[in-house]
Design goal:
Radius of gyration: 17 Å
Order of helices and strands: HHEEHHHHH
Strand order of the largest sheet: 1-2
Strand content: under 5%
Number of strands: 2
Largest sheet: 2 strands, antiparallel
Number of helices: 7
Shape: globular
Length: 185
């Protein structure tokens, strides 16, 4: 065996179900049943029970992104780390039958990160963001959930800065991020 050699294999499965959106963000509410939402919750709970050493996001990444996006350093120490998908948004979910796609980011992450990504990618559909906020209230309202939402907002701000473009998503992320900074300070 060769010391230091790392091998990676990817397995793919064809999923015939359509994605909810071909873009990261939604422009209109998808038609999702209560059963679909329950299946998503069950899938995420099942994933959280997985034993792995994979890491989706580190504390250092969180601190750096928030500092670079908003120009401040605050205490963003995460107290509860969980196993999650890591890239949960509407282009990685199918309906009417649920499948979770794009698993390259799964692993250890702050509590609430999957819900935060889903919440942020629905920002143009206020009724849907409210539904996500209600369905995942324990994860989004706790301190770690607020840090997760702040990190997601920071990434939107940084991405727009790198591309040199400001749009409604960037403005929303900046506004909500500043509000979360206030809450967490």
């Amino acid at each position: 065996m060769n010391e230091g050699l790392v091998c990676r294999a990817e397995e793919m499965t064809f999923i015939g179900e359509p994605v909810i959106s071909t873009a990261y963000t939604l422009d209109k509410a998808p038609e999702l049943t209560d059963q679909w939402w329950e299946e998503l919750s069950t899938a995420l709970e099942s994933l959280a029970g997985t034993d792995t050493d994979r890491v989706s996001l580190t504390q250092e990444d969180i601190d750096r992104s928030i500092r670079e996006a908003f120009g401040v350093s605050i205490d963003t120490d995460v107290s509860r780390w969980v196993i999650g998908h890591g890239d949960l948004h509407w282009a990685n979910l199918t309906a009417p039958r649920l499948s979770l796609l794009d698993w390259d980011s799964w692993g250890l992450m702050p509590r609430g990160l999957d819900a935060a990504k889903l919440w942020e990618s629905a920002f143009r559909v206020p009724a849907l963001t409210e539904e996500i906020t209600e369905r995942w209230a324990p994860d989004l309202a706790c301190r770690d959930g607020k840090v997760s939402r702040l990190w997601v907002c920071a990434n939107r701000v940084l991405g727009a800065r790198r591309r040199g473009e400001v749009n409604d998503q960037t403005e929303h992320a900046s506004r909500v991020g500043k509000s979360l900074l206030s809450e967490l300070s």
